[in-house]
Amino acid sequence: MMTTPKRSLPGPDDTHRHTLPNGLTILVRENFASPAVVVNGYLEVGAEDEPAGQHGLAGFTTDVMQRGTHRRGFNALYEEVESIGAGFGISSGTHLTSFGAKGLAEYLPVLLDILNDVLRSPSFPARQVEKVRTEIQTDLQERAHDTRRLARLAFYELAYPNDHPYHWSQMGYPDTITAITREDLTAFYETFFSPENMVIAVVGGIETEAAVEAIERIFGDWQKSRPPRTSAPPPPRLLAFKERRLTVHDKTQSNMVLGWPGPSRSHPDFIPCFVANTILGVFGMYGRLGTRVREQHGLAYYVYSRLDGGCGPGPWRIIAGLDPANVRQGIELIEDELRRLRKDPVSHDELEDTLSYLTGSLPLYLETNEGVARSLVNIERHQLGLDYLQTYAALIRAVTLEQVQDAALRWLDVDHYALAVAGPEMPASPVDTIEDDR
Amino acid sequence: MDSSTQPLDAPRQVTLGNGLRLIVQAMHTAPVASFWIWYGVGTRNEHEGITGISHWTEHMLFKGTERWPAGSADQRISREGGIFNGLTWYDFTTFYETLPVEKLALALDIESDRMLHACFQEDDVEAERTVILSERQGSENSPLFLLSEEVTSAAFRVHPYGHETIGHRCDLEAITCDDLQRHRDTYYVPNNAVIAIAGDVDVDEILDQVEKAFGDVPRAEEPPPVRSVEPPQRGERRVVVEGAGETHYCDIAYHIPAATHPDFHPLTVLNAILSGGSGFLVGRGHISNHTSRLYQALVEEEMAVDIDGSLTPTIDPGLYRLSATLWPGVDPADTEAQIEREITRLRDEQVSEQELEKARRQARALFAYSSESISNQAFWLGFSSVFADYPWFVTYLNSIEAVTADDVRRVAQTYLKPTNRTTGWYLGNGTM
Q1: Of A422, A428, B380, B426, which has the fewest beta carbons less than 10 angstroms from its beta carbon?
Q2: Which of residues A152, A185, A219 is at a domain's end?
Q3: pLDDT of A5 above 50
Q4: Contact yes or no for A4 and B200 at CB 8 A
Q5: Which residues contact residue B389 at a Cβ distance below 8 angstroms, ignoring those fewer than 6 apart?
Q6: Which residues in chain B are contacts of A35 at CB distance < 8 A?
Q7: Does residue A384 belong to any structural domain of this protein?
Q8: What is the ipTM of this complex?
Q9: Looking at the structure, do residues A207 and A90 belong to the same domain, yes or no?
Q10: Nearest to B378 by CA among B223, B238, B206, B212
């Protein structure tokens, strides 16, 4: 059935990588099967750089950066992008600010020029600052009634202490967004946006030489440094059960997030935890949780688990949407599955299925330019080495039954976790709003 | 564009003796294949009392067979590194598997077995009832769903497109195992299905394999035709939904013709000019809409924080929808009036050549993005075969290129008139 020589997994032989003197690392991989090109990358700036009390400043800054530059006003910027059927965006995270663009391959120089313009010479038009402020405030109003987002927000507040950046919403809060001035935005931009440790990956129907030349020509003269980051706070550990239930009127479903601070991507436990998480709430139709809570008991439309594993101790979470009457039973079943994963070693067959899934699904993930570009950026961000995708299968295959059980024992503490539930009033609940211990 | 980007060969289409249609597209870009089986059943084939039954049947078809007991197929697909799911909408129910190409036979085995041997049990139906109700509850938590459901329902008073695919709560509480079994026996049959395959396959070889896997499935009675025809609307309809929150929303729906009608493509271009190009191909690629007429008139003028337009290709006449999230403190009547001013402009004046050219370029780009992944290609070949035939997709760009400024004005005058409109407001009442 296979009729053509297969493209190998991206690796050092077919991925160009080099770092410019200004700190920018360039990654390029050709894919002439595609008429399009994808740009993906990041800068080392994010919510963790926000001054105290200015939650939402980083996100507010990147939103306004996309509203006009010294060379292009708002309309000129978007006329240029939309008239070629392209798209671009910047978004702020806790540690990094990601950017990306997509267009037909012939427009790569235009895409790079536009990204360069918004990253290096945003003009922060006063009118756009106020428009973005209103858009964020409207989104915050919507969040205040959105049970999924409320449960997520409450979970982070419970799982991380208030001196940890993950405790706080990256989008901010109504009072912090109201208080941020245009001067705050420009000061944040001037202080922290720099090509130091910046990464840009280009994947698609473009020759490597042409892509590298364009990136060097456009970004090579950006000379700027940012203040060093202070050391990260120690990874938090939950020492108590923490619970918050939020009653949101006029809703019919309860949304739940249950979890813990998890291992960072560089933590030695990460890969065994990644495998354990796949067994718990990913494999097949949402793993053991999906089988038990949804298929066998019919309690939820969705229930799954997720391990973030980013630059810091991102959470390991179980997320579910439940009928309010079923919340208590759903939590009991989830706890039961957690205990089982801790107590009983996973069978050889189940582990084998999971490892096969994790290794076998790589070609699907890497089918698109977006998938390859994301992988290359991720590899660079976590210093995994350009041969990572080629060694990935061996890395996953080396995980043992004991390591999976040990990961569950170390990270999935059934007595000490954070639980946030947002939804209508729960029947037979002793109290309808329980605050945590803050 | 680099010359080494090769155009695809034409897809191959055959019909088996039992009426099952098959379309195969060879794409040698990755060692992957994507298999989609589309049954011609969805919201369109339901009526009051059994609304939501197609979506529920889709869920039940994951409950297993003797050879593939519940959970075994998705575990096997996952073990082989594939993905596996199903979805239901207005005109179709589809199941798909995307796999490493050497495992494609697995998809044929699972789907032919499911077509022949799925058997629904009472206890599975009851377990799934709470899952489906939970899915509906999740939607009800969103003000936009509540508004959209009311607007759709008001827009259609005869045709089944007037109810949501998830179905009414009362029907979800009442549908029985027998109802589901009857629905399955009627619609999930080879002569009401089309298979679309794209990937790194030898076309002749895959045609043989499909014939072996599905050729013996007996042809069934033809499913009953849909008789409902939505009568012309004779005046504006309005609905108001009140609920929690501070934010107001406005949702406007115009009746438009079926996907195969010659006016569908001019309406697609009209939407690109009015509200942005991403509506070209549903869910497959995104272009911002900041230079569209409605963004400029509403968001730039601080009457809305967001505006979106969409039209979905359907077998029977559907809806063109405009949805706005209002700027805080703005009266919905003012936002609505501003939208109507822009619609009036479209009816009264020709769009410019520059706007037309921008819409065409956006279409070309989005079409390229839609076609570059193997899964997307199989999706579009199958989806277009449900509401038209696959050449609808293959010739899509030609159809868009042919649209003139006169066409855009004509379809604006024909369809975007107040008497053909249903307008809905969601008014947040400020409660938590």
Answers
A1: A428
A2: A219
A3: no
A4: yes
A5: none
A6: 1, 5, 368, 372
A7: yes
A8: 0.90
A9: yes
A10: B206
pTM value > 0.80: yes
Can you give the pLDDT at residue A437? 35
How do residues A167-220 score in pLDDT, each as one tens digit?
Answer: 999 999 999 999 999 999 999 999 999 999 999 999 999 999 999 999 999 999
For residue B284, the model assigns a pLDDT of 47
Distance of alpha carbon A427 from alpha carbon A292, whole angstroms? 23
Cα torsion B380, B382, B383, B388: sign: positive
| Three-state SS at B371 | helix
Q: How far apart are CA B243 and CA B241, in angstroms?
A: 7
* Token pair recorded at residue B346: 């479209």
Least confident of A307-311, A326-330, B28-32, B71-75: B28-32
Per-residue pLDDT, B31: 87
Q: Which of A1, A7, A104 minimises the CB distance to B365?
A: A104
Please, what's the b/e burial string for B253-283 (b: 16 or more CB within 10 A of its CB; e: otherwise)?
Answer: bbbbbebeeebbbbbbbbbbbbbbbbbbbee
Determine the average pLDDT of the residues in B77-102.
94
Give the model confidence (pLDDT) of B311-358 as tens digits.
Answer: 999 999 999 999 999 999 999 999 999 999 999 999 999 999 999 999
Per residue in A276-310, is it b (16+ CB within 10 Å) or e — as a string?
Answer: bbbbbbbbbbbbbbbbbbbbebbbbbbbbbbbbbb
| Same domain, residue pair A365 and A409 | yes
Cβ pair A134:B328 closer than 8 A:
yes
Cβ separation A82–B244 shorter than 8 A? no
- CB contacts, 8 Å: B24 with chain A: none
Task: Enumerate the residues of chain A whose CB falls inside 8 A of the CB of residue B369.
Answer: 36, 102
pLDDT surpasses 70 at A17? yes
* Same domain membership, residue A213 and residue A68: yes
- Check: CB of residue A363 under 8 Å from CB of residue B30: yes
B-chain CB neighbours of A91 within 8 Å are: none
A199 and A270 housed in the same domain? no
Q: Which domains does chain B have, with CATH numbers?
A: 12-214 (3.30.830.10), 237-428 (3.30.830.10)
At residue A431, the pLDDT reads 34
User: What Å distances lie between residue B51 and A274, B57, B91, B183, CA to CA?
Assistant: 41, 11, 13, 12
Q: How far apart are CA A391 and CA A380, in angstroms?
A: 15
Q: Is residue A59 located within the same domain as residue A130?
A: yes
Contact partners, residue A175, CB within 8 Å, separation at least 6: none
Does A370 fall in a domain?
yes
End position of a domain, from candidates A219, A254, A272 = A219
Task: For residue B7, give the chain A residue with the closest CA.
Answer: A33
Partner-chain residue, chosen from B1, B28, B77, that has the shortest CB–CB distance to A4:
B28
- Residue A6 confidence (pLDDT): 45
Of B1, B142, B246, the CB nearest to A35: B1
Residue A196 sits in the same domain as residue A340: no
Q: What is the DSSP string of B115-142?
A: HHH----HHHHHHHHHHHHHHHHHHHTS
Q: Are residues A193 and A265 both part of a single domain?
A: no
When pLDDT is averaged across residues B230-234 and rounded to a whole number, the result is: 97
What mean pLDDT is predicted for residues B365-380?
Answer: 88
| Same domain flag for A40 and A74 | yes
* Residue-range definition of the domain harbouring residue A163: 16-219
> What total of structural domains would you count in chain A?
2
Q: Cα–Cα distances in Å, from B409 out to B256, B359, B399, B417?
A: 15, 15, 17, 12
Asked, for residue A237, whether it belongs to a domain, the answer is: no
User: Looking at the domain assignment, is residue A431 inside a domain?
Assistant: no
CATH of the domain at A213: 3.30.830.10
Tens of pLDDT, residue by residue over A353-369, are 999 999 988 888 888 89
Report yes or no: B245 and A141 within 8 Å, Cβ to Cβ.
yes
| Closest chain B C-alpha to A141 CA, distance in angstroms | 7
- Taking the CA atoms of residue B170, residue B176, residue B179 and residue B183 in that order, the dihedral angle to the nearest 10 degrees is 80
Average of pLDDT values for A17-22?
Answer: 97
A341 is written with which tokens?
């994963």
